[in-house]
Amino acid sequence: MNITSLQTFLAIVETGSLVRASQKLHVTQSTITARLRTLEDEVGQNLLNRNKSGATLTPAGTKLLRYARIMTGLWRQATYETNLPAGLESVCNFGCDRELWHFLGRAFLNGIIDGRPTFAVSAQQGNVRDLEEWLAAGLVDVILTYESVARGNQTTYALPPEELILYSNRPDSPMRSDSMYLFVDHGDEYRRQHDEFYHDAGIARLSFNSSWWALQYMLDYGGSAYLPRALARPHIAAERLFPIAAAPIFLRKKYFIVNDNAAQNWGWFDPLIARLAATEVPMGHLAASMQKK
Question: Class for domain 3-81, per CATH?
Fold first, then answer.
């Protein structure tokens, strides 16, 4: 089984057809067909159902898909690390939840690079499940995530929880029954606490699963929403956003999880995590009270 065959299989799955896969990989359709046939012969199973409308996964293809992604990812990582340019000695592969990138993720990246000219960083964004799988497979060395999913050879660093504060583009915005309220989905625990406190509120007309998207909408069109304090902070000083003082503050846990084998020679790692954690201390008794609920 070779990497090219697996990459071809993934291209077919991603594009939905052999024709589009050939266009993506800049090879002929007959080459795509030959590579797929070789892979199916090696596996001993049909991996794709092919018809005029495209290609769909068979049960065997569905099982192979996860491993194909891991194997091609590991090959890409190995190629990258063994071909570092002159002057670079090592690399940190960093996986970050897209919601945590805008402040803490970027701060971690900058903390690695600053003062370490021989250190390379590869950063990838993903959701909780992606990050857990990548770390377990060795595709990344450290992740920044909202769930503690550490395994035997991994260490979890709990950070001060993220503060979710109700902000509005209007200083006199009501805490309840705001017709311009935007619901932002910050995960299961947040939904439970939000529903408990705002049990008498109606369904929001607009909802987002991204704080960044909700923030951009508020800045463009107005509204109110629960956003991470760190994300909203730059817009408070400019008076584009205003915290609603009477509203409760909700907390969301977050963690760094590191592969112990990868980090065994990272003398900089613990001090960097401690420094980042020190900048993340929640503020206000309301935050503490909501955490205890």
Answer: mainly alpha
